[in-house]
Amino acid sequence: MIMEKGISSVEVLPSKSSQVTAVKVVVKEPDTKQTQRGKRVGFVLVHAGAGYHSESKAKEYKHVCKRACQKDSPFTNAGMGSNLNLLGEIECDASIMDGKSLNFGAVGALSGIKNPVSVANRLLCEGQKGKLSAGRIPPCFLVGEGAYRWAVDHGIPACPPGIMATRFSLAAFKRNKRKLELAEKVETDLIQLKKRRQSNEKENDSGTLDTVGAVVVDQEGNVAAAVSSGGLALKHPGRVGQAALYGCGCWAENTGTHNPYSTAVSTSGCGEHLVRTILARECSCALQTEDAHQALLETMQNKFIGSPFLANEDGVLGGVIVLRSCRCAAEPDSSQEKPTLLVEFLWSHTTESMCVGYMSAQDGKAKTHISRLPPGAVAGQSVAIEGGVCRLESPESRTADSSLHCRECE
Amino acid sequence: MIMEKGISSVEVLPSKSSQVTAVKVVVKEPDTKQTQRGKRVGFVLVHAGAGYHSESKAKEYKHVCKRACQKDSPFTNAGMGSNLNLLGEIECDASIMDGKSLNFGAVGALSGIKNPVSVANRLLCEGQKGKLSAGRIPPCFLVGEGAYRWAVDHGIPACPPGIMATRFSLAAFKRNKRKLELAEKVETDLIQLKKRRQSNEKENDSGTLDTVGAVVVDQEGNVAAAVSSGGLALKHPGRVGQAALYGCGCWAENTGTHNPYSTAVSTSGCGEHLVRTILARECSCALQTEDAHQALLETMQNKFIGSPFLANEDGVLGGVIVLRSCRCAAEPDSSQEKPTLLVEFLWSHTTESMCVGYMSAQDGKAKTHISRLPPGAVAGQSVAIEGGVCRLESPESRTADSSLHCRECE
């Protein structure tokens, strides 16, 4: 029995801080009940970056999120077509965390692999097999050329640079490079430099931040999270952002002795801001209190925008998708005795917009949404937050292994 | 006036957990008072790795710590002579954090630079200058070839591979490589592989973990922390460990609205264990409670050895040096009105031993010590903890800028 509770209304809440505008979702009570037995049960929430999503391209962004939800593996939409770095190369960051084993895998500044998160996933899986020969500890984080070699040695196909860069990403690179050259020509002395930096901030802030991420939960309440990013446009070669870093890009933690809830988080935005606030883990910790919405809002306000670690920043740019689940008693009128899984899912961002999609496995239909800051709210200083609730009930026939993402190496 | 309270006696405390042996330092009351005016005031604590330090080489390890304390910059003892990776290359990780600005700089898998922490430091300093041309966000973490290029472009001299590897590190590489080849030859089937892995664990555990780190405080109570590591012997190329990772290798945070104490932490040990517990930051947070010794012991017990993130590990290997400071009223018999700075310094490890050194700037004499687990305690399952207290009083003449580590780029 699935009772998908869609987002039904959005209201702007009065804010504690004058800088913060909160958007709250009021969740409608379920109005449809549908029994589906023997099917896969689970829920996936994806994002296609927190940044600026123009109205004219809204359809394309939504399509990306929809496809990401519907794929067996939702972690396939980064790598190819990423931003190019200063030298015109693509270097990607990606990571994945399994809430059941608490294992983690990550790659940074990785070139030549179409889906970097598949390498992160493989690192996680290999790490679960225990020590290497001669007692060596398996790596959980590889970067650059070494990460590429490891991937190819483990059978992950290489992708020539000519295919990695798309026409779109190459055109953006040329445009950005021209802008940079012009900016540097004009910056002839320190005063002009400072002015230029300030005047260009808005320009940079409104650029698309092309991270892709996903959080998932299966019928057992096992959670996982992943994130993949090509990083900022014209970044310095070798720069690694939040998508590769433990606690910063994604987090997943099953319910346990100290955790009443299973939680999964994936982040997007300005890598340096997300790293210095260890935002994914911070959100996960906060979500152990009762009111998920309030907990996430306060985290975005106090631990992100208001973080002492970002006190000198003009604006703090980022977004998160979060999912938390817990078992609850079956509905009184349910024919099944098994408890249902309550899944709360939320997204929150300080960027102008964030594109998300979500789907339950039985449903098979992805919903997509572009969340925007309310009119007048200032990106980098305001928080938008939305979400919904979904109930999942285990089907009668379960597979013995409910592992979410290790299929490929088992 | 300096009242250096040395470590005077060590007693083994009864432990709450049967697995944990605690060693506590009882600090003698000061018996000497010495007035020194107009001199630099500050305190530095360094480590030369948590791992296994043989009695036969104790003198050498202590000498390294002593030299590290006495240098103007204490962050100079990693890079050259590091462990070689599987391909016989040296790839280093290093990071640094400034407790005043809360800025951070890090490099990972960096080759060809003698002192990788100098690049991390330079990244931190450059990051403090604000945005780059065209509004680009300056990187705080660079890896591999990109990090090397950035360093050289910023005037940090390159060091040829032939000089980076020392006779000692090359000999260790050849020895380890032979061991590995032998191990892989013997591992003909899965059962043998498993046996071999188990029997080799001890061997690996007892290897020296060659991280170097430092925590410092100046007369204003500003703290900083740094760490530098060549990583595990025979690591996979591109593997990045805790020394490069935010929250894992080092942490420094000045006193603030929510922090009664300034804290600085630097870690050493098995990178993967230190990463998955975000140990440096965890220690820093814990040290905000009154009893520093108890807080650190509990953190090592519950958040490191007992961490759910390392539940599947046979032994959890690591060590930390920590320093915390707060202002306190001047001694009643003091001729000065300025409050003194109380500095508590501690080290704790689950490895067989840890080599540390500490010094106050006015003192000029470094004390060194090899801390060992008590007889019978099991490495990876037991905690050793020791430390001391020192009072610093600001000299009459102060320099206007008390920045600890940004001298080179100001």
Keyphrases for this structure?
homodimer, 410 residues, alpha+beta, eight-stranded mixed beta sheet, six-stranded antiparallel beta sheet, 25% helix, 28% strand, globular, disordered N terminus, disordered C terminus
Radius of gyration of chain A (Å) = 21 Å
Number of H- or I-type helical stretches of chain A: 9
- Termini of chain A, distance in Å? 30 Å
Major sheet summary line of chain A? 8 strands, mixed
Model regions low in confidence, pLDDT < 50 over at least 5 residues of chain A: 1-38, 73-77, 195-208, 396-410
Strand content of chain A: 25-35%
Global mean pLDDT of chain A: 78
Question: Which two chains share the most extensive interface?
Answer: A-B, 71 and 70 residues
User: How many extended strands of chain A?
Assistant: 16
Structural class of chain A: alpha+beta
The largest sheet of chain A has its strands arranged as 7-6-5-9-8-4-14-15
Helix content of chain A: 25-40%
Please, what is the oligomeric state?
Answer: homodimer
Q: Report the order of strands and helices of chain A.
A: EEEEHEEHEHHHHEEEEHHHEEEEE
What gross morphology of chain A would you assign?
A: globular
